[in-house]
Write the structure tokens for this entry.
Amino acid sequence: MTQNAIEIQGLTKTYTGQGGAPDKQALKGVDLNIRAGSIFGLLGPNGAGKSTIINIMAGLVRKSSGSVRIWGFDQDDSPRQSRAAIGVMPQELNVDPFFSPRNALEVQAGLYGVPKRQRQSDEILRLVGLEDKANAYARTLSGGMRRRLLLAKALVHSPQVLVLDEPTAGVDIELRQMLWDNVRMLNRERGTTIILTTHYLEEAEEMCDEIAIINHGEKIAQDSTANLLGGLDAKTMVIVPEEMPRTLPELPDIKTELRDNGTLALAYHTSVTSAESVLGLVRDSGIRIKDIKTEQADLEDVFLNLTRSA
Ligand code: ADP
Ligand code: MG
């Protein structure tokens, strides 16, 4: 299959308020196509609606309206096929405390109708580094091990689409690395389409080919990671001059601005102009530098800009 792993159209979700609480419109008509074979990031602040999208895809939450196709199968018309095509590692760390990892995988495989001969529990446990704990009670597993078990459970039916909801929230560096290695390996060797949600831009930047940004239940941007985060080489050098220049220097490819606090701000792109040459140009225009610092446009800025303009 060369087209889309996921096709979502006009997806809405309103959670009915319980016990007098008001209804909550969590999704306001989301369209989302995710290319087969990609590592795709769903990005957005807490409460944006990311988990709601994921849980609808997983069949854990009932949508209010719209259509969802997974691996070409419409969720309403072909519930069994669409469910078989997707594996979800949920955000919550729910594991049955009385099952060992091996039991948990066998039960999960049974739920998905994977025949005994085709089960790969040991291989999956090895993949996520839980082979030593295969027969331990899940309640004795650390938080990180539980997360690995949840990843393992998402893999028992060899889904074409693997979804990870906030996989690294509260996870240590080692586990994070292991998760990413596994995910990249699955993507590369099995062609598994990976969808992950995160509110860490850096994580999305590091992992994803393509990113969609969700805010207040709406998709506000979708593009390749490079295009979306391409403005990130913007830097500003802020100079405290010995003496204020009478006129602002006109410098190629640099935007100069005199700030109220008596500093001179020079905005430039590191892909075009080096800090070295900015400094040189400043000196050449006769300005003597008393103090200097740089400001970097970080990922949070890009994100804020996108969410503000929406
Ligand atoms: P995200 O995963 O991006 O943090 P969620 O999809 O979890 O966002 O939540 C989107 C919105 O829907 C939030 O305002 C959240 O409070 C609300 N919400 C999520 N689940 C429920 C629920 N079961 N009942 C009522 N409101 C919910
Ligand atoms: Mg969430």
